[in-house]
């Protein structure tokens, strides 16, 4: 009887795995393959607006792969520049988030246990609040006659309003603001588990607090720093909403390029090529992130 | 010895308070200025609720809000089903063929730039229409499928971490007493997961309600959701009506989150 149940259980087990697996393959994996496929196509005035790769001509199946989109991407300076500046923007965002988020996470991890969940809740809450609205809020703060300029003028710190809105600075502010919680959460979870007796040991041996921090706390919190930086960097590289609302003519981001190719130029193959190039850029960080998560899982079990 | 730790003690709380001010300041400014009488969004001229009244007269906004709620309800429920299964698999089955691919696919949407999700989902729907004749064009169904696909990740993570914290022995005990795996799942595992299920559903709901980028790719002419309306209005410039709308959304989400938090802390006390 047991054996029968076991076998039923096993069959149930395969079913439980197969159902979400199938969903993800159809709606997540296959779409990526399609993006790759269409990046080798050319644009056409048709519905859908690209040329089929496989055609039937003279009794033979013809597969045509155009590599022209990729040549175009690498030869056009605008695309290369957009890539480089997206990477730079995301890296700067991750770094500043680390600088701001580390002390915050450390403070929460060292606060009284009964306060911790409430403080964490405060960090997570903005994430639940509409992203679009949070970015929109910065327009009112940063623009020429916005709240920040009015405040600084009133305090007499500046004589004329600062030009922040529609510049690279505004994009940085928006991105740091939007992605800060992603940095704090993984940092908190490593710092919370940090063995405080090591800090006491270091201090008993005569290390000054700063020195203890550099040679004990910081190295031990490396997994959190890595996870947090990746969680900020990866989505930030492809960010579209923030540069399009807060950025100006000098802001070049690959997400905006893709959007314009798709919606303004209606060039699906080039948009797909940009997406492929963006995925290629993210493969290494994504693998690093998955490794980090697996290691953490292994440590917890 | 404690003194040495305490010397820098002012720094950390100050950083935390400043950081929280940074996180909440902009949200508060939107709320405060939604009650501003002036058409100029950032110049205070007096208290008024007229922008809320304007909101109630805006048919486009109301229609879009209704549509967004409908989409969010359906996608959160779908994501709950797929995400619970995925999270359960990740937490309980440590070895099977393709586990790395599986966990990669479950978790990638958490960080994947949305613009990639959007274009790939669109190309899938276009390809499907070509191959099997469904979906015809794009609309509410395609938005719901896309939302389920990327919000599943959030549900799965919440379920997985909840299951990792719970004791396997309860399930084993039920199994030893002769319960079938499916009974164990519905009578033991599922009730244990209840707080995570609620939290996962709410998170999926709020993410779906807020999604702009993926939705832009997979929506059709008749399916303009609330974020699409907000985005096109914001692009035209600041608009006090948006502040009012934003305040309504923030209030709604805060109440829901607050209730979820209370429910969860009560469960964990028990």
What does this protein structure show overall?
- The complex is a heterodimer of chains A (301) and B (270).
- Chain A is mainly alpha-helical.
- Chain A is 76% helix and 3% strand.
- In chain A, a hairpin with a 2-residue loop joins strand 1 and strand 2 (60-63).
- In chain A, helix 3 runs parallel beside helix 7, helix 4 (113-128) packs antiparallel against helix 7 (168-193) and helix 7 (168-193) runs antiparallel to helix 10.
- Chain A is globular, with a radius of gyration of 25 Å.
- The two termini of chain A are 32 Å apart.
- With 270 residues, chain B is an all-alpha fold.
- Chain B has two domains: 66-232, Orthogonal Bundle (MetI-like fold); 238-270.
- Helices cover 79% and strands 0% of the residues of chain B.
- In chain B, helix 2 crosses helix 12 (240-269), helix 4 crosses helix 11 and helix 7 packs across helix 9 (181-210).
- At the A-B interface, helix 1, helix 3, helix 4, helix 5 and helix 7 of A face helix 2, helix 4, helix 5, helix 6 and helix 7 of B.
Counting helices, strands and paired strands, the structural category of chain A is mainly alpha
Which strands sit side by side, in order, in the main sheet of chain A? 1-2
Distance N terminus to C terminus of chain A? 32 Å
**CATH architectural label of the largest domain in chain B:** Orthogonal Bundle
Rounded mean pLDDT score of chain B:
86
Fraction in beta strands of chain B:
under 5%
Task: Based on the model shown, name its key terms.
heterodimer; A: 301 residues; mainly alpha; two-stranded antiparallel sheet; globular; B: 270 residues; MetI-like fold; 2 domains; disordered N terminus
């Amino acid at each position: 009887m047991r054996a029968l149940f076991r076998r039923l259980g096993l069959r149930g087990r395969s079913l439980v795995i197969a159902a979400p697996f199938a969903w993800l393959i159809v709606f997540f994996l296959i779409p990526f393959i399609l993006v790759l496929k269409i990046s080798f196509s050319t644009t056409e005035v048709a519905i859908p607006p690209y040329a089929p790769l496989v055609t039937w001509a003279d009794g033979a199946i013809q597969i045509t792969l155009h590599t022209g989109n990729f040549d175009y991407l690498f030869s056009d300076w605008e695309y290369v520049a957009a890539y480089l500046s997206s990477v730079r923007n995301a890296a700067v965002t991750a770094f500043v988030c680390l600088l701001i988020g580390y002390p915050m996470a450390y403070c929460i991890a060292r606060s009284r246990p009964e306060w911790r969940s409430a403080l964490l809740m405060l960090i997570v809450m903005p994430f639940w609040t509409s992203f679009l609205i949070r970015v929109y809020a910065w327009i009112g703060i940063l623009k020429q006659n916005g709240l920040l300029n009015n405040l600084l003028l009133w305090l007499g710190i500046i004589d004329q309003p600062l030009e922040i809105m529609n510049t690279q600075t505004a994009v940085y502010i928006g991105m740091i603001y939007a992605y800060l919680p992603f940095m704090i959460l993984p940092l908190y979870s490593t710092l919370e588990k940090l063995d405080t007796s090591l800090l006491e040991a270091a201090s008993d041996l005569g290390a000054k607090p700063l020195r203890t921090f550099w040679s004990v706390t910081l190295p031990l919190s490396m997994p959190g720093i890595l996870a947090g930086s990746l969680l900020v960097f990866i989505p930030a590289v492809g960010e579209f909403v923030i540069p399009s609302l807060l950025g100006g003519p000098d802001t070049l981001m690959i997400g905006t390029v893709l959007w314009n190719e798709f919606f303004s130029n209606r060039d699906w193959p080039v948009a797909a090529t940009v997406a492929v190039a963006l995925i290629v850029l993210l493969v290494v960080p994504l693998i690093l992130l998955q490794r980090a998560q697996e290691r953490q899982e292994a440590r917890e079990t | 010895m404690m003194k040495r730790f305490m010397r820098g003690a002012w720094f950390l709380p100050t950083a935390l308070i400043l950081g929280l001010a940074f996180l909440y300041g902009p949200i508060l400014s939107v709320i405060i200025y939604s009650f501003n009488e002036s058409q100029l969004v950032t110049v205070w001229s007096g208290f008024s609720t007229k922008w809320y009244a304007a909101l109630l007269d805006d048919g486009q906004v109301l229609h879009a809000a209704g549509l967004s709620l409908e989409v969010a309800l359906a996608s959160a429920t779908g994501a709950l089903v797929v995400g619970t299964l995925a999270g359960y698999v990740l937490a309980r089955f440590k070895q099977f063929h393709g586990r790395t691919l599986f966990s990669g696919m479950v978790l990638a949407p958490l960080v994947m730039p949305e613009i990639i999700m959007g274009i790939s989902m669109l190309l899938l729907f276009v390809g499907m229409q070509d191959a099997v004749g469904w979906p015809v064009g794009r609309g509410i169904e395609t938005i719901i499928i896309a939302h389920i696909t990327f919000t599943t990740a959030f549900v799965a993570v919440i379920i997985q971490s909840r299951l990792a914290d719970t004791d396997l022995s309860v399930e084993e005990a039920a199994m030893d007493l002769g319960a079938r795996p499916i009974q164990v799942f519905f009578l033991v595992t599922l009730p244990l997961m209840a707080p995570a299920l609620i939290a996962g559903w709410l998170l999926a709901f709020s993410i779906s309600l807020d999604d702009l980028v993926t939705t832009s790719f997979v929506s059709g002419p008749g399916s303009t959701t609330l974020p699409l309306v907000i985005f096109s209005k914001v692009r035209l410039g600041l608009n006090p009506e948006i502040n009012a709308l934003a305040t309504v959304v923030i209030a709604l989400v805060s109440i829901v989150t607050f209730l979820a938090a209370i429910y969860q802390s009560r469960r964990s006390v028990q």
